[in-house]
Amino acid sequence: MMKDKNLKILNIGTKWFYDALVSQGVKNVVNLAWQPKLIASNKIALPLDKLLENRQLVEKINKANTSVVDKFNSARPYLIDIELAGKVIPNFKRNLILHAGPPIDYNSMCGPMKAAVLGAIVYEGLANSLQEAEKLIVKGKIEFAPCHHFSAVGPMAGIISYSMPVWVVKNFEFGNVAFSNINEGLGKVLRFGANSPEVISRLKWIKNVLYPIIKKALRLAVKKQDGVDIKNLTSQALLMGDECHNRNVAGTGLFLKEILPYLCEIDIPKKKLIEVIKFISANPHFYLNISMAACKSTADVVEGTKYSSIVYTMARNGVEIGIRVAGLLKEWFTTTAGIPKGLYFPGYSEKDANLDLGDSTISETVGIGAFAMAAAPAIVKFVGGTPEDAVKYNNEMYDITYGVHKTYLIPQFNFRGTPLGIDILKIVKTGITPFINTGIAHKEPGVGQIGAGILHAPIECFIKAFEKFINVYLKD
Using an 8 Å Cβ cutoff, are 398 and 419 in contact? Predict the structure, then answer.
C-alpha cells in the first residue's frame, strides 16, 4: 500500500501498474497511453504518420471499418444442408482439388498436403494407387485452387474433392453461402496428411452412410426452423468452455442435441443411426468444420469494402500464411508460415512439425478461436501454455481489432464481447499480430497429427498489406 499519496506519478507502458495505484486510492497518477511503433524506419513510420494525420482519410477508414464490424455482427449463419461438393459448389470440376491457404502448386506443397491430395485422388477413383495419383498430377490432369476461391474452407490440408460431402451454411442476413468438408476425427486422417486404406475407407463411410442420413435430418430442420442456427450454438459453446477452433466439446454436444430429434424422426435402420451418433459423439472436433463454414459465410460479405483495413481472410497452406484485406479486393499477402509451440504426442517433437497449416484461422478472423481463448481455459491441456497465458494473449487481441462481438461473449472478461475485426493499421502500429491456436501435422507425408500448439501470425504479411494499403489510399 502506497503511503505518500501526494506523490505525482506518470505511468508509461503497462496499464496494470496504473490500475493498481488507482485501486489503492492514489490521486496524482496519470497513465500515458503510449507505445512504440513496430518499425522505426521511414518505410513504415512516416507513411503511417502521414495516413493518421489525414483526417478525411481516417474518417473514411473508420466508416468502412465500422461497416465491416457491423456486418460481422449482424451475420446470421444457418446450417441448411449437406451435399456433395461437385453438386453444390459452383464451377467445381471432377479433376479439381481444393486446398487450404493461399494459392500453391503441387510441387511447392508441404508433405502432409501432398499426401492428402494423393489420398483424395484415390478416394475419387481417379487413380487406383497413390503412385498412379501422382502420375496424373505430373501429366497435368489434376487442377488445384484454394478453398477460399470457392467460398469454402477446410482445416489443416483443407482438401475438398468433387464427391466429398460438404456442409452448406447460408448467411440469411446477406444471402451468401459457404462450405466446409466433414471432420474425420483426430490422428491419422486425411486433413493431417494420412492417406492409408483406413483413411480412405472412413471417407467413403462418411459419404455412403453419414451424408445421406444427416441430409435427411437437415431437411426436417430446414422445414421446421430454417436449419440449425450456428451463431446461437457458437454463442452457447463459448459460455460452456469452448473457443470453437481447437476446443469444440460443447459445440459438438450442442449440435448433436439439436440434430438428434430429427435423426430419430427419419426412417433409417437403427444400426445406421447408432453408427452416426457414435461417430459424432466420439469426435470432439466434429463441430469445427460446421463452425468454419459459418465463419466463412460471415467474413465473405465484406470483401471489396473500399477503405477498410480489416482482414477478412487468414489462412495457411503449410508453406505460407496469407491474408486478404477487405479494402484491397481479393489480393493475397503472404509470408513464410510459423511453427507452433505446443504439446506433442509421445515420440514427437518440434523437429517433426510441419509449418502452420489450414483454413481454420477463419475462426480468429471473425472473433472466435484464439480470440476467445480466455473462455476456454481447459484448452491449454491440448495446445500448451497456461490459463493465464490464454487470458493474456486474448486480452492483447483487443489492441489490434476494431470492435467487439455483440453475441460471442467471454465470461472471464465480465461477458465482454470477443475482439472483432483484425486491423492491419493497428498491427503495424503496435507490433502485435493475431494469436492462433492450431493442430500440428508431421512434416512427412502419411503420418498425420502429432500434436497441437499456439503461435502468433508472422508480421511480414501484414506489413505487405499495409504497404499496399498506403499505396492505394494515401494517394486519394
Answer: yes
Range of the domain at 158: 77-294
* pLDDT for res 384: 80
Q: Are residues 345 and 265 in the same domain?
A: no
Domain assignment present for residue 24? The answer is yes
Residue 85 and residue 164 in contact, taking contact as beta carbons nearer than 8 Å: yes
Q: What's the pLDDT at 460?
A: 96
Cα separation of 389 and 410, whole Å? 15
Q: Among 294, 310, 338, give the residue marking a domain's end.
A: 294
Note whether 24 and 122 are same-domain residues: no
For residue 380, give the CATH number of its domain.
Answer: 3.90.1700.10
* Contact yes or no for 84/94 (Cβ under 8 A): no
B/e letters for 413-431, b = 16+ CB within 10 Å, e = fewer, are beeebbbbbbbbbbbbbbe
* C-alpha span between 212 and 206 (Å, rounded): 9
Q: How many residues does the chain have?
A: 476
The closest alpha carbon to 192, from 164, 218, 230, 158, belongs to 158
pLDDT tens digits, residue range 348-389?
999 999 999 999 999 999 999 999 999 999 888 888 878 888
pLDDT tops 60 at residue 35: no
Domain membership flag for residue 46 = no
**In which band, very low, low, confident or very high, does the pLDDT at 40 lie, cut at 50, 70 and 90?**
very low
Contacts of 122 (CB under 8 A, 6+ apart): 128, 129, 130, 133, 195, 200
Do both 263 and 121 map to the same domain? Answer: yes
Q: In this structure, are 418 and 376 located in the same domain? A: yes
Checking if the pLDDT of 129 tops 90, the result is yes
Q: How far apart are CA 383 and CA 289, in angstroms?
A: 19
Assess whether pLDDT exceeds 70 at residue 88: yes
Say if residues 315 and 102 touch (Cβ distance below 8 Å): yes
Q: What is the pTM of this model?
A: 0.90
Q: 462 with 383, same domain?
A: yes
Burial of 382: CB neighbours in 10 Å, binned 0-12, 13-18, 19+:
middle
C-alpha span between 453 and 439 (Å, rounded)? 6
Which amino acid would we find at residue 212? Answer: P
Residue 255 near residue 214 (C-beta atoms within 8 A): no
- Number of domains making up the chain: 3
